[in-house]
Amino acid sequence: MSLIHCRDSGQPNSSSDLPLDSLSTEVAADTAAGQVKRKRAQTPLEKYSLKYLSVTDLSTQSWCEQQMVYGRELPQLQAPEKVRLLNTGKSIHLARELEVHDIVEVRTTSKEDSWALKILNLLSMIPVLQAGGCVRELPVFGVIDGIFLVGIIDELCYTAKGELELRELKTRGRPSMPSEAQKKRDYFQVCLYKYIFDAMIQGQLKPDVITRHIRLRPEQPLGSQIRQHAQKVGFVVTCFGDLLELMYLNLTLSDLPSIDRLTIEYSHQDSDTPLGTEVVEFEEEKVRERVQCYLAYWKGQREVQGVEIEEAWKCRSCSYSEICDWRRTRADGPEQRSGSKKSK
Ligand code: SF4
């Protein structure tokens, strides 16, 4: 079956494109001297104007939280080689996607239109999975600990035993398997995809979840190109809320199974040589704990942290090692660090 996967040609598409519209940083405080206004510290979510986070934000954070923050604030300092690797990886993913999808550009005229496209992509893949087919670049959405998360699953297929398998492709600059630390980051990423996907098909993505978290209007009429595209893939919709209802019903009534198996394929970018495949064990409790720990930073419940001393080797290949406050204070002694764990 040939799928159409739509791309947004009109609206920005990142989690930081939508400023939080009701974030007051001022809190009124009564004092003996009268009414004085003082500033409350912004949470990182507020500081970067984010309404949601991506799975890749959290997997990057799992490598080094401080590095993830520098990457957001100072992307120009990233080593050119790293940028080249990322861009080549994106091109390879696109080529694989084109093997199973036709990609069309659809003009959007509102924030709701942009989200409608993501939902239409998801909706168009459900029947393919129901029929036992394979899909690529499947969007997933969900809420953990009060934070909205989005992600894109590389590939979902059925194995010969009929298990639903998530396959993640990781391309590498070096012709060798990654280190254990790199694998750990990748394991976390695919576990998080499963966590969100399973919650979606279990009915946790209710129609109002997206509108509440992203602050979208269900009554917003969809643009003409979106409505035309929806019709092509079999849905008659007029407003954004129609699509949200359809998404909820299709996910919960589709009888799709939970993801049974998680695999990561590593391949060498330049030669396209497969390097190996890892099968990942899913431990729900551990995944939830790690996510909660990472989200605590985003919610302003703790300070940013760099790597612990046992992982200081990561700093040697870090683009930000020259300017890193965490690294400098660690060199001065662990007691100098603010917000760090106590050294054992
Ligand atoms: Fe993290 Fe080390 Fe890089 Fe600092 S120098 S951002 S602690 S990896």
From TrEMBL:
Q: Does the keyword 4Fe-4S apply?
A: yes
| Subcellular locations according to the entry | Cytoplasm, Cytosol; Nucleus
Which Pfam families does the entry link to? Exo5 (PF09810)
| The protein's required cofactors | Mg(2+); [4Fe-4S] cluster
Alphabetized Gene3D superfamilies for the sequence: 3.90.320.10
Q: Name one GO biological process term.
A: interstrand cross-link repair
Question: Which InterPro entries does this entry report, sorted A to Z?
Answer: EXOV (IPR019190), PDDEXK-like_dom_sf (IPR011604)
- Ranges for the region named Disordered are 1-21
Domain of life according to the entry: Eukaryota
Gene Ontology MF annotations:
4 iron, 4 sulfur cluster binding; DNA binding; metal ion binding; single-stranded DNA 5'-3' DNA exonuclease activity
Q: Which GO terms describe its cellular component?
A: cytosol; nucleoplasm
What keywords are assigned to this protein? 4Fe-4S, Cytoplasm, DNA damage, DNA repair, DNA-binding, Exonuclease, Hydrolase, Iron, Iron-sulfur, Magnesium, Metal-binding, Nuclease, Nucleus
Family note: Belongs to the EXO5 family.
Please identify the protein, giving its name as recorded.
Exonuclease V
Q: Which organism is it from?
A: Pelodiscus sinensis
